[in-house]
Specification:
Layout: H1 6-13, H2 16-26, E1 29-30, H3 32-37, E2 52-53, E3 58-59, E4 61-63, E5 70-72, H4 78-87, E6 98-102, H5 121-124, E7 130-134, H6 138-143, H7 145-159, H8 169-177, E8 200-201, H9 205-224, H10 231-242
Parallel strand pairs: 1-8
Antiparallel strand pairs: 2-3, 4-5, 6-7
Length: 248
């Protein structure tokens, strides 16, 4: 037996428009006001970065139960997910079976290339680079190029921001050339500042307080954290963040 491409088989039984509609009706977006308040929430972290304990003074390791070998624990998606959770006014226990999905990244259908975008602290916990989706729908954002483009168009028009990582020039061209507006969700903006997509969570006092607390923690850590705290990385991310925010 020989199978056709799995994505083509999927499109045979469900249209791109219906997939986009499921995402439209369930997605949760951070508001533009929240983004401008604090674009990057955890500039000290990025995908694959190392974890430390004792206020950044000691390596944090995991020990393999079989081999007994200890390895330096590294970041997967923990602090990106935490940033999105706080920016939506939620707690982790309030979002069972929801996943944090990065909107901008390296597109590689073989999943062989390193995702240098989320390995950059400017974009890893940037809340304009994420959307919250029911966990089963995350597979569509990972595998369907058309869904990625539509999410990026929506995010670019919602936040007035696009990921300007050096390796994404072709991705921006794809957005400008998009013409399948029949599949594009009706509530998503086609142009800057046109409308808020369905599921946008307004900036609240709780969210504002979380953002202010996070920024205060970053500034404190720049002064007081241990020797492994990545001060140069954090300052660079904050400098980038100020270009699209109200940080003073």
């Amino acid at each position: 037996m020989e199978l056709t491409d799995g994505l083509e088989e999927l499109k045979r039984v469900i249209s791109l428009k219906k997939i986009a509609s499921m995402i439209e009706r369930t997605a949760r977006w951070v508001s533009p006001e929240t983004f401008r308040l604090l674009p990057v929430w955890y500039p000290e972290f990025s995908r694959g970065g190392s974890f430390y304990k004792g206020n950044w003074s000691q390596k944090q390791t995991n020990t393999n139960r079989i081999t007994g070998l200890s390895i330096h624990k590294s970041e997967a998606n923990t602090h990106a997910s935490k940033a999105l959770t706080l920016a939506l006014g939620l707690k982790s226990k309030q979002r069972p079976n929801w996943s944090c999905c990065h909107i901008w990244g390296i597109d590689d259908s073989t999943f062989q290339r390193s995702n240098t975008v989320v390995r950059d602290s400017r974009f890893f916990s940037c809340i304009a680079n994420m959307v919250l989706l029911p966990t089963p729908l995350k597979a569509f954002t990972d595998a369907l190029p058309e869904i990625k483009v539509m999410l990026r168009i929506c995010a670019r028009n919602l936040y007035g921001w696009k990921c300007d990582h050096d390796e994404l020039s072709n991705a921006h061209q794809e957005l400008d050339e998009w013409n399948n507006w029949g599949a594009y969700p009706k509530s998503w903006p086609k142009h800057p500042n046109e409308r808020l997509p369905r599921g946008t969570v307004a900036l609240s006092q709780q969210i504002r307080a979380s953002a202010e607390k996070r920024l205060s923690e970053i500034r404190r850590d720049l002064r007081e954290a241990g020797p492994y705290y990545p001060r140069k990385q954090v300052r660079a991310a904050l400098k980038y963040s100020k270009k699209c925010s109200m940080i003073r």
